[in-house]
Amino acid sequence: MAQTATPITDIIDHSVYRLQQLFGGQLPVLLKEDKQLLGGTEIDGTLDLDGDRVPFMVREELTMGQLKKLHEHELTVFGKVILLLGYSDEAQREYCRDKHINFVDRAGNCFINLTSLRIAVDGIANLMSSRTANRGFQKSGLKLLYAFERAPGLLRHPFENIGQSVGVAKGTVGEAIKDLRKAGFLEGQGEERVLVNGRKLVEKWAYAYLELLRPTLHRGFYNYRGDDIVRDIYENDDKDEIHYSGTRAADRRASYLRGFDTTIYTNLRASELREKLQLVPIGKKPVGETIEVLHAIEPVNVIPLDYHHLVGDLILYADLINANDARVLDAAEKLLNNEIRSKFLQNGFQW
What we know:
By secondary structure, the protein is of the alpha+beta class. The protein folds into two domains: 115 residues, Trna Endonuclease, Chain: A, domain 1, CATH 3.40.1350; 213 residues, no CATH class. The chain is 40% helix and 20% strand. It is built from twelve helices and 14 strands. A seven-stranded mixed β-sheet has the order 1-2-3-4-5-6-7, sandwiched between helices. It has a five-stranded mixed β-sheet with strand order 11-12-14-10-13, with helices on both faces. α4 packs across α7, α5 crosses α6 and α11 runs antiparallel to α12. It is globular, with a radius of gyration of 23 Å.
């Protein structure tokens, strides 16, 4: 069974890939994920680097103060340890080199000083910069609306059942329902609840998704080394764990335009994407097609996809209006006025 990707596993997979590429793919790198206490300090596993076995710790992002505290209170426990970082800035990398702290970040910057391997790489821009969540509109509310559009019957369930289906707290469901009602997007009680003012609701959802939720789903840009990414998805993903968006998805969904742009939504780990689709994290010298990869938000246990391997219409619409291309924007408008509108009305909602 495939392991679900998380920000932590993405950091691990990217770090291993970067280390392997340091010497043209010839560096033996073996990683064992195994959370355990070692000398009273929790580690995330061990790395074998060309004969050196060292424990590693994963950190998504550290302030300089947190890095110094980690060095003074935990890293000193070990003679050798490697930090796998989701993000590092110039000052942090300089501190690591000065204190001889071994590290690799997901962009490929590193400092490693081991018996069998000594290398330092710096100056690679971190694509995954830190972000501050906008508290004005909760991510959970966007996920709920997406689920309601995909599975209209879910809207009429008790709050607890809705929360369990979508992975949102019961209290959050209640607050979201209340806010939708106040904003004029929901009417009725209990089993009579319906979404109303659908066009405005979808447009508001799409812009909020692009501003607030989509950036948090971004996993990185990858190089595609094959000939046809969509064909590879259909041939190599029989469990429907990879969904695609962009102009090629719009072409398959409604044939409103021909295009070659593809965006991938999946929770598969980076190592599995490399195996299934020949996708590798983008490096200094991009080779082949560049593909953006994002985490999927499909509540797959409850809501089947309308079309095999395609994202839902709301996400597809949002991704299309994010393009700076008149043809693509026209296709987005047609998708909104036809497919999305028709589904709203078929579901008993009001447009």
